[in-house]
Amino acid sequence: MIVLRGLRKRLGARDVLAGIDLEVPRGQFVTIFGPNGAGKTTLLRILSGLMRPSGGDVYLGGARLEDDSVALRAMVGVVSHHTYLYDDLTALENLVFYGKMYGVKDAPERARRLLEEVGLSVFAHDPVRTFSRGMQQKLAIARAVIHEPEVLLADEPYTGLDRRAGEVLTGLLRRFKERGVTILMVNHDFDQGVALADRVIILAGGRVALDELVTSESLRLIRERYEELVGGKYAGVDQKQ
Ligand SMILES: Nc1ncnc2c1ncn2[C@@H]1O[C@H](COP(=O)(O)OP(=O)(O)O)[C@@H](O)[C@H]1O
Ligand SMILES: [Mg+2]
Questions:
Q1: Ligand 2 (single-atom ion) residues, CB below 5 Å
Q2: Is 80 in the pocket of ligand 1 (CB under 6 A)?
Q3: Residue 16, ligand 1, Cβ within 6 A
Q4: Which CATH number fits domain 2-37+58-182+208-224: 3.40.50.300, 3.40.50.620, 3.40.50.880, 3.90.550.10?
Q5: For 36-79, what is each residue's pLDDT tens digit?
Q6: What pLDDT, in 10s, does the model give residues 189-201?
Q7: Is the CB of residue 171 less than 8 Å from the CB of residue 152?
Q8: What DSSP letter does each residue of 72-112 carry, written as one string?
Q9: Whole-angstrom distance, CA of residue 120 vs CA of residue 105
Q10: 241 lines ligand 1 (CB under 6 A)
Q11: What is the CA(104)–ligand 1 centre distance, in A?
């Protein structure tokens, strides 16, 4: 579903991504860990078509991203610390707006269903500016999947969510996974990160430092590498992206 070949990104004087090779089959849930500045956000931004690589190739569903970026972007849903919501529009209006932008046929109906799924039906007609951070994040997730993307890219989606909202998000991610959506999620929390993951990747120094399928046997190794490369240093820090 996603293929990266020698992906590079130079920002300023730094090779933020220094040659990433990766193949993610359809329906796989991949969690990406890595220390601050490892290039995780850069990687997701390139995959979402928001940033151009400096070198290498990106394929989505067999097509080269650069050749057909508009069509391919419609295959992708993005959740990040940017909500991409309009403050003055209501929750429902925001979703209908994005639905129509993506050409979703039954946009109002789908928007209502999604509001229910993320637990915001009661607030459908309230403007987003009255929403808490957690509510906005839930709505941002609904927004990201209004067009039923085949790929979901989630950059620290749990940031700013309280425990309850976090549980709602976990339930949503689990359902997307069950529907066969390919998911790449950046997370800091080891347990949260591995909970739904089929595979864990650790980025460090712009390279893939670990790439393991999650099994009861591999979990110990993954944790050791995580602690060595990522852990401790950022515990409790609400990292800026
Ligand atoms: N516009 C830019 N110019 C120069 N360096 C940048 C720019 N944007 C990001 N960087 C650097 O790229 C590195 C990787 O950033 P990022 O992908 O956000 O890392 P992560 O999400 O893993 O914390 C960081 O060191 C950051 O400072
Ligand atoms: Mg980041």
A1: 40-41, 241
A2: no
A3: yes
A4: 3.40.50.300
A5: 999 999 999 999 988 999 999 999 998 898 887 778 888 999 99
A6: 999 999 999 999 9
A7: no
A8: HHTTEEEESS-----TTSBHHHHHHHHHHHTT-TTHHHHHH
A9: 22
A10: yes
A11: 34
| CA-proximal residue: ligand 1, atom 5 (nearest) | 11
Task: Kindly report the pTM of this predicted structure.
Answer: 0.91
Ligand 1 site-directed mutation target among 33, 42, 159, most atoms within 8 Å of CB = 42
Q: How is residue 45 written in tokens?
A: 């931004």
How many Å apart are CA 221 and CA 81, to the nearest integer?
A: 30
Mutate-to-test residue for ligand 1 from 7, 10, 14, highest number of ligand atoms within 8 A of CB: 14
One-letter amino acid of 98 = Y
Residue-by-residue DSSP string for the chain: -EEEEEEEEEETTEEEEEEEEEEE-TT-EEEEE--TTSSHHHHHHHHTTSS--SEEEEEETTEETTTSHHHHHTTEEEESS-----TTSBHHHHHHHHHHHTT-TTHHHHHHHHHHHTT-GGGTTSBGGGS-HHHHHHHHHHHHTTT--SEEEEESTTTT--HHHHHHHHHHHHHHHHTT-EEEEE-S-HHHHHHS-SEEEEEETTEEEEEEE--TTTHHHHHHHHHHHTTTTTTT-----
